[in-house]
Write a structure and sequence with these properties.
Residues 1-13, 20-29 have a biased composition (Basic residues). Helix 5 crosses helix 6 (97-117) and helix 5 crosses helix 9 (169-189). Mean pLDDT is 85; it is low at 1-31. The chain has ten helices and no strands. The relative contact order is 0.10. It has a single domain (41-210), classed as Orthogonal Bundle (Recoverin, domain 1), CATH 1.10.238.10. Helix content is 54%, strand content 0%. One calcium ion (CA) is lined by residues 51, 53, 55, 57-59, 62.
Length: 212
């Protein structure tokens, strides 16, 4: 979805085999093809394009199929699960239309952030761009931490050598959300705000496993 403008997805979906003309032939058609009252018709079209089995809900698999990085790779399942976890507010394991509205806006906002910090328009975020982005979010990280993050989230070098190929959109979002989650967890324990915490094993494990 990063690569394709929402409109392109919309047209793609209508030209594909899941066009809206099929709604009425589906056994659940009457209940899911009609947008909820007051729904943005454009948003409903995008939702219908991602809900390929017309169940009225978006699953992790459907979401992963719909989300494409600029370099043509699909989003990592970890990122898809993270997004589902944030927006599946009723905790039924699927994304309904109202939840999708929030999810879509979130992705569009992140696309704008990504494009802003992808200074060289390479379609990925390199170490310098990452450092600038995190600094603008208020994270003043050491060079070694930045390198660690860059290596963790960059996709492997294509030729096995040379500079890391950078961080794709989906991994950039996951990196930023993870850094925020871990930092917030730390700050909660660091009550006097001196940069040190005392925690037991249980707390440490909960903190790490609670990160996306
Ligand atoms: Ca579905
Ligand atoms: Ca849900
Ligand atoms: Ca770049």
């Amino acid at each position: 979805m990063y690569n394709a403008h929402p409109h392109q997805r919309h047209h793609h979906s209508l030209s594909g085999s899941h066009g809206s003309q099929r709604h009425s032939h589906h056994r659940h058609g009457s209940s899911v093809s009609v947008p909820p009252p007051g729904a943005d018709p454009q948003m409903w079209q995008w939702f219908a394009a991602v809900d390929t089995d017309r169940s009225g809900y978006i699953t992790a698999n459907e979401l992963q199929t719909a989300l494409i990085n600029a370099n043509g790779t699909r989003f990592d399942l970890d990122t898809v699960k993270m997004l589902m976890n944030i927006f599946d507010t009723d905790r039924n394991g699927r994304i309904g239309f109202q939840e999708f509205t929030g999810l879509w806006k979130y992705i569009v906002d992140w696309q704008n952030v990504f494009r802003h910090f992808d200074r060289d328009k390479s379609g990925s975020i390199d170490g310098r761009e990452l450092s600038e982005a995190l600094l603008s979010f208020g994270y003043r990280l050491s060079p070694s931490l930045l390198t660690k993050i860059e290596h963790k989230y960059a996709s492997g070098p294509v030729a096995g050598y040379g500079p890391p190929p950078g961080i794709t959109f989906d991994r950039f979002v996951r990196a930023c959300v993870t850094i925020k989650t871990l930092t917030d967890s730390f700050k909660q324990l660091d009550r006097n705000n001196d940069g040190w915490v005392q925690m037991n094993y249980e707390q440490f494990m909960m903190l790490i496993l609670g990160a996306p």
